[in-house]
């Protein structure tokens, strides 16, 4: 089991490590949905360096929907993630998957479509694409989660925190 938290302050990274947090999630302008805080690319470089020194993984929130006008922003964000050794990328729009696949980065992806992963068949179908993990829907029962987890390896479950149903 890994503990994952949004990164609210760069200065708190050492506290995250002391609390046994395994991965922090950071958000970038234009590509992140519902961010706890948005960081610039320069701030993110500092975060990645410090986090990795502390043994923390870094995940990037790329949960926004990809609109045609935003393709360059998403491609730039993916290139940044690749160049700066980001450990995981959370996404909800399959456009991000196709861009990442072209860059040979699909193994860094975690599919988090909020309400869509509600069965082991759903989860396994996305995992077959080479995606590292999927996040189960929060609306399913605990028994359903246990069933899915027993038939699928590569799932994350949100057990605490801000619960967003959907955005539009």
Report on this structure.
The protein is an alpha/beta fold and 168 residues long. It has two domains: 109 residues, Alpha-Beta Barrel (TIM Barrel); 41 residues, no CATH class. The chain has six helices and seven strands, in the order E-H-E-H-E-H-E-H-E-H-E-H-E. The protein has a seven-stranded parallel sheet. Strand 2, helix 2 and strand 3 form a beta-alpha-beta unit. The protein starts with a strand and ends in a 12-residue tail after the last strand.
Structure keywords:
TIM Barrel, seven-stranded parallel beta sheet, alpha/beta, 7 strands, 2 domains, globular
What does the secondary structure layout of this molecule look like, with pairings?
Elements: E1 4-6, H1 13-18, E2 23-27, H2 41-53, E3 57-62, H3 71-83, E4 88-91, H4 94-102, E5 109-111, H5 120-127, E6 133-135, H6 142-151, E7 155-156
Parallel strand pairs: 1-2, 2-3, 3-4, 4-5, 5-6, 6-7
């Amino acid at each position: 089991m890994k503990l994952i938290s949004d990164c609210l302050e760069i200065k708190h990274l050492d506290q995250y490590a002391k609390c046994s947090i395994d991965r922090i999630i950071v958000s970038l302008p234009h590509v992140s949905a519902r961010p706890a805080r948005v960081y610039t690319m320069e701030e993110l470089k500092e975060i990645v360096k410090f986090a990795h020194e502390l043994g923390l993984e870094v995940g990037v929130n790329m949960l926004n929907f990809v609109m045609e006008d935003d393709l360059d922003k998403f491609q730039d964000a993916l290139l940044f993630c690749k160049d700066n050794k980001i450990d995981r990328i959370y996404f909800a729009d399959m456009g991000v998957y196709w861009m990442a696949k072209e860059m040979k980065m699909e193994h860094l992806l975690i599919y988090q479509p909020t309400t869509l992963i509600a069965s082991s068949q759903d989860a396994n179908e996305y995992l077959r694409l080479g995606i590292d993990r999927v996040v189960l829907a929060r609306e399913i029962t605990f028994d359903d989660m246990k069933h899915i987890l027993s038939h699928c390896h590569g799932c994350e479950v949100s057990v605490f925190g801000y619960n967003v149903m959907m955005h539009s």
